[in-house]
Queue: 3 jobs
Job 1
Amino acid sequence: MHETLMSLIQLQMIDNQLLMIQEKLGDLPAMVQGLKEEIQSKKESIKTNTAAVSDLQSKVLVSKGKIQDHKAKLEKYQEQLYLVTTNREYDALTTEIDYAKSQISEAEMTILESNEQIDKLEGSVKVDEADLADLLEQLKEAEEALADTVKSTESEKELLEDKRNEALSKVPKRFYQTYERVRKARRGLAVVPMERGACGGCHNRIIPQKRVEIQKGNKLIVCDICGRFLYWNDDNGE
């Protein structure tokens, strides 16, 4: 059999085994990554809402100070009302009193609205913190499962990768490029045996002349339909 074809067959067998190892991991790698992204999103939400609560609490303190200030002024203006002697002074004081009252009312409304927002945000933070604790636990379990699976296949994978590199060293670059291109396009299969006069990959019939060439194994033959490398298998009952 052609040396490059033998190496390609070996390469395909090794890649099949590596794929089986990858399938053992299942969706664990994607699950771990998804959990990490969700955890990061929760952390950012908690950080944003906590900062918003802090800003609103500062706003409440400022408004409380404003109320105290205007109440003091209001008390002073109301005392002065009894001392005025002209209508002009009276009108000026009542204007100041009305302004102080409006500022107190405005500050009280700000406090009310801010406290409502604070309650909502603190509620969201509590929910996010509970979700975060649950996600962290899920991540821990997923990472442990992934680590166990990786550990159980690590030595086998390393051995297969060494064999793959050895087989790869015997395949000319242009044939390896074709192999990889076809393998990616054909669900991981780039080298298949001829089966009952047809391609073992796409099952399309092979012309008699090519069948003879495949059986001889003296050169590389590819399927005219799917582009896979074809070889003769003595055990296929041809």
Note: The chain has two domains: 24-167, 173-231.
Job 2
Amino acid sequence: MTSTAMTYIVDDDPAVREGVCALLGSVAIETQAFASADEFLRIAEGGMVGCLVVDVRMPGMSGLELLQHMRDRGIQIPVIVVTGHGDVAMAVRAMKAGATDFLLKPFNEQELLDQIRGALNQSDQHLTRQQNQEQAALRFSELTPRERQVLDQIMDCQHSKAIAYDLGISEKTVDVHRFNIMRKTGTRNVSQLIQLRILAGDIG
């Protein structure tokens, strides 16, 4: 779990906010608490790491509406919605909108801790994947336009002879480009190259 991960609590009930903060503080989980969704959105940003625990029904902006605003802003941290028995249908709607899980009030403290730890681990894994993707994309950014053409052909499982024919160059030139592609990306064989290219995703 990354040391920068934060658990954000959004609930209009001060007793709930204080209780959850005290519980998480007792197991060294960092917290920030907010009395409304609007307060949370003032500090929320796309690159934040951690998880959100939010009451699904609050005055003003509901937890469900908050999820929509987060999605619109590209905020992808895991969300645990907390709800009363009468709001289960709304909690299910929240999960369909992207929430990770929901808890019924009054919730069990250990269950809450387990869900938060799971959400923080999920956030940490997402951050690691994102960093790996960015690093992979950076390697491919060094390729020349011609090397990118050759790479595209390699991704289509084309052999040097077919690539040479399609691009109107010699097989020897294709092999030189292939060597340079692997050197620049730090890969040792075509299998590693393909895996890294898939990891990089959209590289422009």
Note: The first strand starts at residue 6 and ends at 10.
Job 3
Amino acid sequence: MQSKSNPTLKRFILAATATVFLTGTALTTGILTQSQPANAQIMVTAPAPNSFADLVDAVRPAVVSIRVRTEITEERQRQRQRPNFDFEMPDLPPGHPLERFFRDFQDRFGNPDARPRDRRPNRAPRRNYTEAVGSGFVISADGFVVTNNHVVENADEVIVIMDNGDERVATIVGTDPRTDLALLQIEGADDLPFVEFATEEARVGDWVVAVGNPFGLGGTVTAGIISARGRDINANAYDDFLQIDAAVNRGNSGGPAFNTSGKVVGVNTAIFSPTGGNVGIAFAIPADTVKQVVFDLMDDGNVTRGFLGVSIQIVTKDIAAGVGLEEARGAMVTRATPDTPAQMAGIRSGDIILFVDGEEVASPRELSRLVASKLPGSEVELTIWRDGDEQQVMVTLGTLADEVALVEPAPEPEPATPDPEPMPTSLGIAVMTGPDGEGVIIEEVDPDSAAAEKGLVPGVVILEADYQGVNTAEELEEIIAEVRESGRSTVLLKAMRGGNVRFLGLSISE
């Protein structure tokens, strides 16, 4: 259970499958809505399902329950039971009556490398197991099954339970922790009922039906609508979840969400809940993402992704104003890592990436998803904003390795002794020459200034202003004057705090 910013709101990863489906007889209903102004009336005719029964009958044979068995070794069990403290033997004379007591105590709790003494000879080691349940769905006649990675992670045995109750052994073909997806295959399968992924985009307001295994009950059907798209729940760098209000609970993880045509539009993965039960907010991985990952796993059990090699941040309205963009969009490069595809193609700090092969970059996460969807070694065209205009840059992508961070912090600067006298500036901050003579370090901040509103605090180093390096307060003021003369009311600053670099737009209006 993970606490969010609201202490009463918890995010639960489901250990179950949820499937969403809708078909059957439809009735035509006239819906009248009124918007402003009062005389602008919109008439909408939309189909409403009379029943989901035919749809459920059609797809339920392909929805499975998953039972996972994981061995808990004695070492793991000791680690779980051992208190988290260090223990040292007291200084006792040899042969002291308490010596044996403390040595046993140390073996059991104080020394993680020691093995508890078992005074029962010739006894076979006890094998302990933990079991978990989840959901999944069959996508091919030869038994490929999609589920969540967290359902089968560390599994020693995976059993797939069909809708008719048959139990089948499955092997793990491959997993992708980055998207929390896994692909299984049922052993010896050759003629199983299966479902297909939707090719059309799911829309907010579309009906969905979830079929899964909540709390191990199996074969449970719930219905609702798609409540939102593109949800970011801080699960991973590729967050792009569908939010649905069909009842989804623990045990629904890995299950499909179906549209009214019986096609899979998403894989149910997580819920928001203050209690652990359904509150009408569930999240599903979109079908497009699932297809890409699953078919990659089907090839060789691994997922390969394109790699660009940049640290990026969101583009705020102030930043957009500072660089001359009409609206806040794209992903701003704070650092192009040396010897990466981005750096070798000429991408540099301060560039704003707007498009990848013509596809708009709405946010940093969108850039991560677009680049990851490309094959390593492929050449892509990046449209960037630099020097007040759009430019095109061709980049040959590398391969994203598991150990490579998507957003890599800048290295810590070497400590240096700044100049002794802080100089006030028109930004409401007093600065001195920064570490190693590069940039200016903030020593004082006027609490009523725009700088304070933007989160600038003592210790932050300003490296650039309006893409120009600054090493003194005088240089900073000269750049601010130039920006004012150009008619702009916002200056773009490149600042560093704790080794992390970010850009921000700061108002310089008189």
Note: The chain has three domains: 1-30+44-301, 306-399, 423-507.
